Amino acid sequence: MSQNNEMHPRNPYRNKPPDFKALAVEYPEFRKFCQYVSNGKVTFDFKKDAAVRCLTQTLLKKDFNLDVEIPPGHLVPRVPQKLNYCLLIDDLLKANKLTKNVIGIDIGTGTSCIHALIGARQFNWKFIATDGDEKSVRVAHENVAKNGLSSSICVVHVNPDVKTVLMDVVNTIPDTDYAFCMCNPPFFEKGNGDDKFCEDISSSTETYSNRVASEFRTAPHSATFASSAELFVDGGEVAFVNRIIDDSVLLRDRINISESTQQ
Question: How many CB atoms lie within 10 A of CB 100?
């Protein structure tokens, strides 16, 4: 929740970060991860996967009326940063006079499907949300359905092994033009993220975590857990984004704006 001054001017979290004490009073599940200290303030355990997941779910429910399931061991999106990304996209759309019947593509939507859910709920955009992981697609589809947004968001499973990122999706839905595509890509090539993430032996699934200190860094303030598919990709993020660029050039008459972020 840091770097508030760098957030988008229209991001409500910029000037009003989450009030953990108020959230603890209103949401009993969130309260389980809080402790009241002697000065009357509340401390929150950012190093637990369940706690960070509950924070995201609580903010999505309170501020966007979104009920979102995020399975343990999968990436937990930070709501202020994800809203920030959508606001930047909104600026680009307005600058290019693309404000009516907006349809976007979210590449690697993840289990939370957060870009598409916020985009549909907050900005009335429609989405094709893609992912190469079958479990992520299934959970994302369930999240879309239970929030009543199936008419606005179509979740699509794509082959993670093909070189193209956009071509197959766009070509299977003819006669549709897209205002933008957005992406928060996997960051690392397999083996190159070992100084930041290691396999979490406490998990029953193939889960990676940054919560343990290493010779390269101290343990982080806020833990991040993720599956292999969410962290690693052949060639790392540079190669992945280059694939998006290559597809965007070929599809320049179908997609107006292509964007990627590390948020």
Answer: 7
Is 148 annotated among the ligand-binding residues? no
- Three-state helix/strand/coil letters over 216-260: CECCCCCCCEEEHHHHECCCHHHHHHHHHHHHHHHCCCCEEEECC
| pLDDT surpasses 90 at 118 | yes
Residue 191: the pLDDT is: 66
Structure tokens, 50: 């369940």
Q: Cα–Cα distance between 153 and 106 in angstroms, integer?
A: 10
Helix (H/G/I), strand (E/B), else coil: 113: coil
Whole-number Å distance between alpha carbons of 231 and 225? 10
First-to-last alpha carbon distance for the chain, in angstroms, is: 12
- Residue 131 marked ligand-binding: yes
**Coil, helix or strand at residue 143:** helix
132 among the known binding-site residues?
no
pTM, full prediction: 0.88
Query: Distances in Å between the alpha carbon of 193 and those of 35, 188, 189, 199?
Result: 33, 6, 7, 11
Task: Categorize the per-residue pLDDT at 9 as very low, low, confident or very high, splitting at 50, 70 and 90.
Answer: very high
Three-class secondary structure of residue 199 per DSSP: strand
The annotation status of 175 as a binding-site residue, yes or no, is: no
- Which residue segments constitute the domains of the chain, with CATH numbers given? 71-189+230-258 (3.40.50.150)
Rounded distance between C-alpha atoms, residue 201 and residue 90, angstroms: 41
Q: What are phi and psi of 220, to 5 degrees?
A: -75, 160
CA distance 148 to 120: 11
pLDDT, averaged across the chain = 86
